[in-house]
Amino acid sequence: xxxxxxxxxxxxxxxxxxxxxxxxxxxxxxxxxxxxxxxxxxxxxxxxxxxxxxxxxxxxxxxxxxxxxxxxxxxxxxxxxxxxxxxxxxxxxxxxxxxxxxxxxxxxxxxxxxxxxxxxxxxxxxxxxxxxxxxxxxxxxxxxxxxxxxxxxxxxxxxxxxxxxxxxxxxxxxxxxxxxxxxxxxxxxxxxxxxxxxxxxxxxxxxxxxxxxxxxxxxxxxxxxxxxxxxxxxxxxxxxxxxxxxxxxxxxxxxxxxxxxxxxxxxxxxxxxxxxxxxxxxxxxxxxxxxxxxxxxxxxxxxxxxxxxxxxxxxxxxxxxxxxxxxxxxxxxxxxxxxxxxxxxxxxxxxxxxxxxxxxxxxxxxxxxxxxxxxxxxxxxxxxxxxxxxxxxxxxxxxxxxxxxxxxxxxxxxxxxxxxxxxxxxxxxxxxxx
Length: 434
Description:
By secondary structure, this protein is mainly alpha-helical. The protein folds into 3 domains: 2-113, no CATH class; 127-226, no CATH class; 243-433, CATH 1.10.630.10. The protein has helices at residues 2-9, 18-22, 31-37, 43-52, 74-90, 121-155, 168-173, 178-188, 211-220, 228-239, 248-262, 265-293, 299-316, 331-345, 351-360, 364-393, 402-411, 420-433; strands at 104-106, 108-114, 192-196, 204-208. Strands 1-2 form a two-stranded antiparallel sheet. The protein has a two-stranded antiparallel ribbon with strand order 3-4. A hairpin with a 1-residue loop joins β1 and β2. It starts with a helix and ends with a helix.
């Protein structure tokens, strides 16, 4: 075992591609010196060399200490190497750096096979940066993170705002109970806390459940709190210029139109009747069937299906059938849910990331595009069919939903003329409001 160990220790590693490495080493042996070196040596030269070897130095002009001289041990070299490397390590922040070379030796310490110094500028620069800054930067970032977290815990009563990432890590850690976590955070913070998104995103916000704050933002000083570009560009693909994605005059106009129609006695009676029919003819029968089956079911899902059927019937005049006894999967309802969920993910991802994903159609953006297309096709078909019905029968008196009222009023010139795009965005926004 010992023989094998030392055989490997003093053997060459058989380095490859030496020509490329040696091309970077300055040539110091001239042709004349090379001729002298390959000449046969004589017994007189050997005798002279041995007599020149003093106890404290090796032959030749370099005066390098030999490990085979009297009164000197190999451990002396080990100590010197250790002290040298320690000095280099503790002085790695200076402008002038140092480099340690591992020499590939063959059979003995006085027979060197390969010595190479990589002088490629790119390689040297990367190696220097790695040697001098990698460890220090890692330690600095770790210390900064720890200190920032401690400061946050001491000064911020809301959720943890992490360095660089902002609130995102906290959101992802509680993604499965996001509503409970948000409620606990609001209670702990006294009803209001501020947050920020990822560094360089410019995303800052305030979460509040204090009634006076909500009244101030939505009524007293509503004009001071527009949705802004950050919000609208993320929702535009799904909501377009609908009421939930509009600001200023456009929002006011849509709100005026919606209120005027929703407060009419015709729509109030229609919506009440729709609600009663859904409860008695669909919801109660479905719950009775589920109870009799003695199987577990998700009550929240049932209520969401009820809400979806209700808003589609009242606002658009269609029945998706989500409350059918067999709880079918409705493609439009599923697509709308996915489109809403994936759109909200844009608030958790930096804009330069999700915009590139949208351009390349990768990740969740690919699924979002597909879901939005299903939703848009559905809403556009509703608008087209209702307008065709108006043309065919001359009126929509048998329809009391909001969409039919808007189309008929627009056709009669009672309100501004509404484009198909406006009406389609109207449908999607009111489904979201459901």
